[in-house]
Every structure is written in C-alpha cells, then in structure tokens.
Amino acid sequence: MTDRLARALGWTSLALGTAQLAAPRAVTGLCGVDDAPEATTVARLVGGRELLHAALLLGAKNPAPWAWTRVAGDAMDLGVLGRAAANRTGARRTRALTALGAVAGLTVLDAACARRGTAKAKGPLQMRASITVNRPREEVYLFWRELENLPSFMVHLDTVRSLDRRRSHWRAKGPMVDLEWEAEIIDERAGDLIAWRSVPGKGVSTAGLVGFTDGPGGRGTVVDVSLEFGMRGRRLAAAVARMFGEHPEQQVRDDLRRFKQVMETGEVVRSEGSPEGHRALRQLHQHPAQPIGGRT
Amino acid sequence: MKANVWAGRNHVEVRDVPDPRILNARDAIVRVTSTAVCGSDLHLVDGYIPTVEKGDVLGHEFMGEVVEVGPGVRDLRPGDRVVVPFPIACGACFACEDGLYSVCENSNPNAGMAEKLMGHSPAGIFGYSHMLGGYAGGQAEYVRVPFADVGPIKIEDDLPDEKVLFLSDIFPTGFMGAEMCDIRPGQTIAIWGAGPVGQLAAASAFLLGADRVIVIDRFPYRLRVARRTGAEVLDYEEVNVLDALRDMTGGRGPDACIDAVGMEAHHPTPAMYAYDRGKQATRMETERPYALREAIMACRNGGVVSVIGVYGGFVDKFPMGTVMNRSLTIRAGQCHVHRYTEPLLDRIRAGEIDPSFVISHRMPLSEAPRAFELFKHKQDDCNKVVLTP
C-alpha cells in the first residue's frame, strides 16, 4: 500500500516536472507568479528537481523512503509560494494561495508515505533463506541440532557453547563490541524442526527457526531458516546492523551455502579470491585470484 | 613462481606471484607441464566478462604433475600425471550426481555475485573471473586444484602432453557441442567458428556419425585446419551463409547448428557490426551475437541449435520468433568436462582422434603476452598456442 502511494507520488512528480519543463509559463501563471522576472527559470529548476523525485520513486525497488526527498522539495515550494502570496494582492494572491494549498495537501501525503516507508524499515531484522542439501534428513538435522557446529558456517557467530540440553551461550563478533547472549530451544521435533530464542533480559533479542523436509523425489533435505533480530537499544541495533552489513538476506543465504558445503563436501570451499569461503563482504572486496602466499 | 596475470584491458603480464598452498583438505598442488590459451581467455582479456580484477592469474586449460595433496585426497599422490578439467566440481551435490559438473552447487565461493547476474550460480572455473569463483588459473608454474579427488584424470601411459592436454577443455567442449545435436546417420551439422573448439566439434560430429559437417569462418588458415577433419567450409565474407547452407542441404537447412563463436562474433556488413560493437563497447549489451542469430535462422525446422561459444550476459535482437514458430531446440552449457574425460581419453588411446592437430604455436610461459597478441589478432596463422612453464 505504502509502495503504491510512493509510485503514485512518483507519477505525480513526473507529470509536474514535465509540465514545468515543457510549459514553465503556464505553470507560473497558474501559481500567480508570472510577474516575477526569474519565475520561468525557477519553474524549470523545480521541474528538473521533480524529475529527480520521479526517477527515485519510480526506479527504486523499495520506493517509500525516497518520499522524504519530496518532503524536502515541498518545504522549499511552500516557502517560495508563501512569500509569493504575501507579496501579492488580488487574483495573483488567490492563485498563489490555491497553489500553496495544493502543495500543502501533497506534503501531507508525502510525509505520510515517507514516514510509513521508514517505519517499515526499522522493525526487527527478519531474514529467511532456503537451501537443498544432498544428504539424508536425519543427518542434516543432527548436525544443526549440535548447536556448537553453527559457527562453522554462520559467519557472524564466534562460538556457541551448550549449557545443557536446551540452553546455550552464544557469542558473536561485533565490529566494536562482542555480543553475548543466552538462548534456549523452545521447540524441537527430531528430524523436523528446531526453534530457539534468546533468554529475555540478557542483552540481545533474537530468535530462529529451522525446518527440515525431504527434498523432491526423495533427493536430499530442504532446509528453511528464518532468523529474527530485535532492535532494543540503539547501540545494539547499530551493532547488529553492522554485523549483518548491507545485505542481511545475502548473509543468511551465504551461511546456508557454507552449511551445504560442510554437509556435502566436508568443509567450506575456498578460492584465492575468497579465501574464507562465501562471505558477503568478501564478494565486494575480493583478494586477487592469485595464490595468497603464506605458509603451507 | 611465474604466472600470467590480467593487468588491465588488453593487457596480460607474466609476473612473480606467491606459490599456491593447500586451502582445503581435498586440494592438490599441480606443477604445470603444459597449458594453453583458450578463445574464451580473450573475452576476459578484452574486458567483456565482468568481475575480472587486476592481478588475477589466467588460464583454465592445463595439465601437469601432482606435487602435493591435502589430507582429504586419497586417489592421487605426488608424482601422478594429471589433466585437470576447467570447471571445478565437488562430485557430491545434486548437479554433480546428475553429471552436470559445470553447474556444481558447491564450487563457487562467490555464488552471490553470479546470482545477481544470472539468477543462480554455475560452478567455479579456474582463472575465469571472480563471479565464477575467483580461482587462480593454470597459466602458471603451479596451481592449486580443489576437489582433486573428483576432477583430475590420471594419464598413466606415455601419451605426450599435447595429445591429452585438450581433455581439460576444448576437446570435451567440442564433443559436447556435437553430442547436444543428437546426431543421427545421414545428418548435416553446421558449425559457426573454425577456432580450435569448432575444429574439434567438427571432428567430434564425424565421430558421432554425422554425414556432413560444414564449418563457417572467415580466416583461410582456420578453415584449412577444419577441412582436415573432413568438413566442408564456408567463408562468410565470400558467400551469403544462409543461401549457401540452403543450397547445400536441399533447401531444408542443416539438421543441427553449433555456435562455437560466442560473444565476440564478427559480421561482414560494417553497419551491422558497428551496431552491436557500439552497444557492447558502451556496455548496453554484453554480446555480439551474430553467429547465434545466424545459426538460429539457418537451422532446419525442428532442429537443434547447440551453443558452446561463451556468452557473458545479455543478447539483443534475439530471434525468438523463429525458435518458437519453427520448433527449434536450443541447448547450451559450459562443458561438463568430467563426464567426457574417461571416454575421450579412451578414444585418443584407441587412435580414433588426436586432438593435437589444432596446435599451431608452442612457446614458453614467459611469452604468454605475445601468445595472446598473436591469438587475438589472428597473426602468423595462430590457431592454438601451447605454453610450457
């Protein structure tokens, strides 16, 4: 819904921008400012700006937050039109006030869209990914159930230590601070699923669910994972965001690829360009594809 | 050690780089005894394959002697002589179990990069961009070979390097190109591109029972080599290929067409060439697909178009209407080399074929930059270069 509003605002920007560039005099006339010598230039500049809004709102995959650029533009327009109305009388003043009203109406829509767009982005960080592992379900389940195995393929984890059958202590590498929390298994059905969550009140708020089903045609095991990180406290939120980088889903997919490699080939596969194996960050900053040197 | 690295567009350099070491338990280190320059290396050097970086060691056709094995490799030991397939395959995933080694699900550590361009990731390839793994290549004195218990094929007799080296890529690639045509007796196969892959595809088509093979190119020296396989040849700068093929096949068209050219094709009409060349140079399309377009137009109704020439991204003006309305089948793929190494080695041993007929130049590795120049600009009748470290 918010995205549809954002797209509609994008089309509005496109129409306004095109009008202002193609017929600036008609626009300045409608706004009652056609008596000012610089009015057509300003209309053209604003038209160019509107096309920029249009490009962002119609081109972005997730357009709603870009409505903030329109809000900024609205503030500019309201200022200009307000001054124009104050300095004019008669029919021109009426037209300027009408334009002001129209822009104010759009501003309300823009702000609502932008706020909802950004609010959506601030919820708990949720990530899902699936992979098919060419091993029997029981074996795949057992490897995951041994939670101490998780750091061998989940790159953000440092260690997981089992405290007892249900409780475990987790440590993650943060960029500034290490994060530590205690988790408990809240549901488990042998060979089918494992669900866990952090113990309330101990720092990090996180939960995870992994399901195992037989692959199509009885070949391998489908592993579906969803992870959730709550965002309590700014510092924690920032640390978690940095831990997962720009593309959290990509990280979980990479985690699952490593998991698949460990299950199918025995270990994480390394190349000269990615000596650590799959890693979202490494995909942006590769080592050259030449031997990395060092000791044998 | 010395290695041939990519130093920028149209620029390769032999440099000193660190010796490789074991990174995974199933790795082996191979001392390279022979390596070759492949036409697909030219796409990298020309800068048309994304995610190649300065300093990357090139080369995916190589063989040599095992000098070290990781603790997970049981069936190879130092001293073994091996040819190494260019795709890297784990041997244990869904794709490998089905014989689709070049789309192994585990061998590309940069699968996320490939997914963005291609939807899903194929296998890693030696010396062939970071999107396809970021593996150091084999135009070097030594190379690390992952999954050494799956890919390398041991050469236990005294067959010389030159007879078996091309099991690493171009012989299986040409063979798979012919195999995808589902050749039946009496059939005519047309092949675009008389480079080494096209030449070996022609030879393979005859091995698989083709009646006639017609090879299309514009370089007389390449067509001469192709003719030696028994193929007829067409120079597309001399004749209109579609008309000529129609005439040669009783108006029906070849039963199957093989594109052994790929993304940097040439077109005899300057305006047509300039159109795609310009779009490719400005990165508006990644391919110049003349051979593919023509192969599709030429193929007989219900025939097969087999694509073994390398493409990197997106094609414009693709004649989908002719594919659909004329019931064509398009088959394509990086070669699943592992499938073919044993049977093709047997054919070489039996004397059915000697793939070394494609070799025109032999040079030391240190002259790799000159080899690339000759090969790229088709100078000195350069058909295939073998480098020895």
Polypeptide structure, described:
The complex is a heterodimer of chains A (296) and B (389). Chain A is built from nine helices and seven strands; from the N terminus they run αααααβαββββββααα. Chain A has 296 residues and is an alpha+beta fold. Chain A has a seven-stranded antiparallel beta sheet. In chain A, α2 packs across α3, α3 packs antiparallel against α4 and α4 packs antiparallel against α5. The longest helix of chain A has 32 residues. Chain A is elongated. The N and C termini of chain A lie far apart (57 Å). Chain B is an alpha/beta fold and 389 residues long. In chain B, α5 crosses α6. The N and C termini of chain B lie close together (10 Å). The model of chain B has no long low-confidence stretch (mean pLDDT 96).
Notable characteristics:
A: Alpha-D-Glucose-1,6-Bisphosphate, Chain A, domain 4, 2 domains, 9 helices, 19% strand, elongated, B: alpha/beta, Quinone Oxidoreductase, Chain A, domain 1, Rossmann fold, seven-stranded mixed beta sheet, 17 strands, 28% helix
- Total helical segments of chain A: 9
**What is the second-level CATH architecture of the largest domain in chain A?**
2-Layer Sandwich
Q: What composes the largest sheet of chain A?
A: 7 strands, antiparallel
**How many runs of DSSP E, i.e. beta strands of chain B?**
17
CATH topology name of the largest domain in chain B, in short, is Quinone Oxidoreductase, Chain A, domain 1
Superfamily (CATH H level) name of the largest domain in chain A: START domain
Biggest β-sheet of chain B, characterized? 7 strands, mixed
Work out the number of β strands of chain A.
7
CATH class category of the largest domain in chain A: Alpha Beta
Give the helices and strands of chain B as they follow along the chain: EEEHEEEHHEEEHHEHEHEHEHHEHEHEHE
Strand arrangement within the widest β-sheet of chain A reads: 1-7-6-5-4-3-2
Level of helix content of chain B?
A: 25-40%
Count of discrete structural domains of chain A: 2
CATH superfamily (homologous) name of the largest domain in chain B: Medium-chain alcohol dehydrogenases, catalytic domain
The fraction of residues assigned to DSSP E strands of chain A is 15-25%
Structural class computed from helices and strand pairing of chain A:
alpha+beta
Predict the CATH topology of the largest domain in chain A: Alpha-D-Glucose-1,6-Bisphosphate, Chain A, domain 4
Family (chain B): Belongs to the zinc-containing alcohol dehydrogenase family.
EC number (chain B): 1.1.1.-
InterPro entries (chain B): ADH-like_C (IPR013149), ADH-like_N (IPR013154), ADH_Zn_CS (IPR002328), GroES-like_sf (IPR011032), NAD(P)-bd_dom_sf (IPR036291)
Protein name (chain B): Zinc-dependent alcohol dehydrogenase
